[in-house]
Amino acid sequence: MDTYDIRFPTSRQLDGSDAMNPDPDYSAAYLVLRTNEPDGPTGHGFTFTIGRGNDVQVAAIEALRAHIVGRSVEDLCADPGLVSRALIGDSQLRWLGPEKGVMHMAVGAVVNAVWDLAAKRQRKPLWKLLADADPEWLVSQVDFRYITDALTPEEALDLLRCGKDGRARRESVLRAQGYPAYTTSPGWLGYSDEKLTRLAKEAVAAGFTQIKLKVGADLADDVRRCRAARAAVGADVRLAVDANQRWNVGEAIEWTRALAEFDPYWIEEPTSPDDILGHARVRAAVAPVKVATGEHVQNRIVFKQLLQAGAVDIVQLDAARVGGVNENLAILLLAAKFGVPVCPHAGGVGLCELVQHLAMFDFVALSGTTEDRVIEFVDHLHEHFAHPAVIREGAYTAPLAPGFSADMHEASLATFAYPHGTFWAADLAGALADEATVEVTA
């Protein structure tokens, strides 16, 4: 298991900026699983961070090494639940959560790498491996601890068996039409109104029927920016807004109502992702604006409570925040049980590449619909991946390459590994030279 601290200097162009995170450097705590087959496939996984602390995330992945190195690749690929249960069940490391935070994200990175390897060995893209799988086997991959009061294994099995009806037809539709997408690329908080307007118009011309704006730093600015965005896209394109956890519950209600004239489709992360009752209050108060959350929800148990409390209209799972594919299967099944649409969070480093597989499996073999469902898309950093996400006419095209679309180019790893990759080494040398020049001048 090789690990890498990969960071990109996105803060310098304010890409990814929002009210809570003004200067993110999009980063990946990255790992590669290698077998003793010289020409065999490798398993790639990662979790997403935004700069400082990525070294902590890599250290958490390293702490899991003993649970995977030396195990039978055949056993793990036949049953990825083996490694999921082993990693989550390490009581000494679980103490640091349990099942939340840096350690749980590390578990997700390793588990996702196993699924990548398993899909490659079956020569299938991950979405198809999942869609083709026997419902009984998929249920065996899910940890039902703490969620059986909302979803039992028997109910999950019924949902998956029902999802088999019409699967071949839906797979044909997916391959022909793709999966609907929306874009956040115009809406970063640090962008000028001119850049926002230009990018919003380009998004509509590219076929997107929904865009998203970051809000929450200043109400007057948000009103002005929403007005500019609505003018740019017209009345028929959905406009979602995202506060990135900025507000107290009362503020969330007041602020969302103040933006209501621009017909926002949803308000995303209006308050703390852990505040289930707060989300329920916001949802009741701001309807018909929908409430969406999930990218920072730490595990299936919190998702269960959001659904039980009627606190969300849109579930936004994240491919790398929770414990990997296995836990995301639980979240998809919970959402299907409660009849709530899943619109995955993406963007970041490689999240678009990963999450498309989960949404496509959901369409083909579980929920059976893309109605009111879209996957987020952000147009940056895809060039670093061997099989980048592809958008055509506002939709994700179905990936066909075997695996989880997680492979980064070796050149990108060598360039952006922190702090000794060629980019960061040169950047540090330049900064030191600038400091020396200032001292001499002074």
What does this molecule look like?
This protein has 442 residues and is an alpha/beta fold. It has a domain at 167-396: TIM Barrel, CATH 3.20.20.120. Helices cover 45% and strands 12% of the residues. The protein is built from 18 helices and twelve strands. A five-stranded parallel sheet has the order 5-6-7-8-9. Strands 10-4-12-11 form a four-stranded mixed sheet, covered by helices on one side. A three-stranded antiparallel sheet has the order 1-2-3. Strand 8, helix 14 and strand 9 form a beta-alpha-beta unit. Helix 3 (81-89) runs antiparallel to helix 5 (101-121), helix 8 packs across helix 15 (325-338) and helix 10 packs parallel to helix 11 (219-233). 53% of the residues are buried. The model has no long low-confidence stretch (mean pLDDT 96).
